[in-house]
Amino acid sequence: MKRSLPVPTSPFQRRTAIAAALLVWLCGCSSGRDDFIGARVKDSCNGSWPVCSQTASCFIGDQSYIEGRFPGQGKIIVRLEEPSEVKVSFFFDDISAVGTLTSIVWYETGCKASTRVDVEGQSVATESNSTGVFERSANLLEKDEHLISFKSDLEATYLMKVEITPAVF
Prior knowledge:
Elements: H1 11-28, H2 32-37, E1 41-42, E2 49-51, E3 54-56, E4 58-59, E5 64-79, E6 84-97, E7 101-107, E8 114-120, H3 121-129, E9 133-140, E10 145-166
């Protein structure tokens, strides 16, 4: 016996079915903020972890994110199981002033070497204007714990996450 769903027969039923389909489609859309977070869990980042004769407020990985406000600075730790590319991404809710400079520094284990990226404030604002996201990455060669520091005089609230991709050097 072959079965199928009933077909709307009256104009009212057809309009209701179309409206229901449209509502499902509209509600299924997420915001850029939600897309940025995905399934990650917010880390309150209120700890004190020693690294490189300094302290960082939290460990961040592929499953977490933090919130903050610029102007200001922060320090996090990432743990790598192998040499990897580590991408740092910021989602800005509202940029009220572009500032002059945003800096991100990735440190190798023991802070014996580092990669620093400085980006002018206007460039940060322009890059994040369309999607709300500003990101930069660096390759870290050692498996272990790595300090990442960041600072900016930009005025905005942000979400920050890291993405770790095993490197193919």
